Amino acid sequence: MFSRHAPLYGCFLGAFGITFSYGTSVVLTGVTAKIISDSDPRISKLLLKEISAENIRQNLKDYASHPHLAGTPADLQQAEQLKLTWLEQGLDRVDILGYDVLLSYPKDGDPNIISLVKECVYSIRIYEYYDVGRWCDGI
């Protein structure tokens, strides 16, 4: 779906979307608007039509129904299930990429313990009020 060269393409788009003349930048009119605009509004409508609250509910239930700690076989199994689902839904290609991250797992006989040593360590107000106009006057 996305190329590994996507950051490179972004750099070229940025470089050619702005031209420089004697140290001052000149923005090419309409280039950035075209880059960030929807290419075809029908595609957006089609995508939004396919989103279903029931599908979201079912996916959340399926993926949160069992633990899958990062880097464990259960995590890989969930990644493989997600890959299969995406392929069934029509994606051309889905890759599961490995990476090395230093993770600290608790030991079986010596679990990590979190304990409360003081009744109240820090408290904050639930809501904070501020004057938006005070921060936005210069805009």
TrEMBL record:
UniProt keyword terms in alphabetical order: Membrane, Transmembrane, Transmembrane helix
Taxonomic superkingdom: Eukaryota
Cross-referenced Gene3D superfamilies: 3.50.30.30, Zn peptidases
Annotated transmembrane regions: 12-36
Gene Ontology molecular function terms on file: carboxypeptidase activity
PANTHER family, per database record: GLUTAMATE CARBOXYPEPTIDASE 2 HOMOLOG (PTHR10404:SF77), N-ACETYLATED-ALPHA-LINKED ACIDIC DIPEPTIDASE (PTHR10404)
Protein name as it appears in the record: Uncharacterized protein
Organism: Bugula neritina
